[in-house]
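BACKBONE GEOMETRY TOKENS:
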Amino acid sequence: MLPTLFLSHGAPMTALTDTPARDFLIGLGGLFARPKAILVASAHWETELPMLNVPARNDTIHDFYGFPKELYTLHYMPPTAPELAERIAQRLRETGFAAGIDTERGLDHGAWVPLLLAYPAADIPVLQISVQPHLGPAHHFALGAALAPLRAEGVLVIGSGSFTHDLRRFRRGMPEIDAPEAKDVTAFSAWMDAKLREGDLQALLDYRALAPFGADEHPTEEHLLPLYVAMGAAGPGAVARRLHSSTEYAFLRMDAYEFA
């Protein structure tokens, strides 16, 4: 049975820049059996209620600006999964979520950047599920739990966000991509890693109050909420294993986890 994954997708330039995180994502597709389909909970799709995307085709959304032209020439257009989307939406409704389907939206960079590296052939059906930042971690864990049966169907559930994401620091000056990690980032990440390995769900759900610098590392929560979707979708008793850990720009942790 496939695990569920949490991936830190980093800046859009992860698709092009030679970094340890990019190297990890390039090798990711070889770590597990080939999935029949991929469902991505991306930090870059925020909605009032859970939504699944089923466009006529999976267009590549370049949802960023100010980057090199080469980045905008990249496209990732895997097959869509309309039947799977309908089944997931129905399952969510049966478990108390008012889920809907978006027939226009393609794939944002939280989905296509890591998938371009991990599954470059773009021949596996892909769909996204949105996050609801105003509803917090517990909602997203429950949302993931409703998706847990997908593991047995060969669907790879991925939460795509960032282990730390205080982009306010860019306003204070652009550090080098390989700058030494900030001490507060180290403290927060070590606490999160320990609680994930211990399976301490209650502490993780209350990370903003309990983790050192919790609210500082995530001034807004959308980039950590996909982690809870991945945790919930793994099902009861799942164990966390860190697959990758690195830091970019001193404060952007690129950690990745599997739950199985």
Summary: The chain has ten helices and ten strands. The mean pLDDT is 97. The radius of gyration is 17 Å. The domain at 4-259 is CATH 3.40.830.10 (Protocatechuate 4,5-dioxygenase; Chain B).
